[in-house]
């Protein structure tokens, strides 16, 4: 009876991969609207846009003010040192080099194995803290072509994690099949104008870590792939 009770509780407890960006903030709101207890996990991997790490506490604090239910449900935040990723990689996300396409058809912002490692580490923490749901902002519809963001990749990883840990963790990717405009609409449906303003003003997406200029869609350089996707989505969202 005890084991059954623990499993049932775990299915109501989620861990959100939370970077401090638009997608992960939307996913956090999505999880807070569905699960009784939600914790967050972020990763310091030597990213070029490390400003996102400094924005995380501010976003977490402000999202509590949007809903009393969300405030009650939002639990502990965890930041994990994964600096070994930058030691293994040579990418525009971890080094001060120009963003460009590679011979394999992928942009050099792709960090091989990053999302796979993120999810595996998150699963390890979730196992210990009895959190049965892993929530990630991976998307196959409006993205830069990263293979570790694909639905098949995440489904295969879920099988491997559960086999290797003898567990029943579920990986949820609420943004997988929607574009950036639909992501803005999802945020609006979850938290209204308060969440939209929080995403605009406080989250960080820009690959170059640019935080100076405030655009209609938020802070950023305005020209990197992440900024272009965010700006295009916001324009389509506000156009109705």
From TrEMBL:
Q: What is its EC number?
A: 6.3.4.20
Query: What Gene3D superfamilies is this protein classified in?
Result: HUPs (3.40.50.620)
Q: Which organism is it from?
A: Undibacterium seohonense
Which HAMAP family would you find in this protein's record?
QueC
**How many cofactor units bind, and how?**
Binds 1 zinc ion per subunit.
Q: What keywords tag this UniProt record?
A: ATP-binding, Ligase, Metal-binding, Nucleotide-binding, Queuosine biosynthesis, Zinc
Write out the residues that bind ATP: 18-28
Record pathway: Purine metabolism; 7-cyano-7-deazaguanine biosynthesis
Recorded hits in PANTHER family, A to Z, give: 7-CYANO-7-DEAZAGUANINE SYNTHASE
> Which NCBIfam families does the entry mention?
7-cyano-7-deazaguanine synthase QueC
Q: Which cofactor does it need?
A: Zn(2+)
Protein name per Swiss-Prot or TrEMBL: 7-cyano-7-deazaguanine synthase
Q: Indicate which residues the UniProt annotation says bind Zn(2+).
A: 206, 221, 224, 227
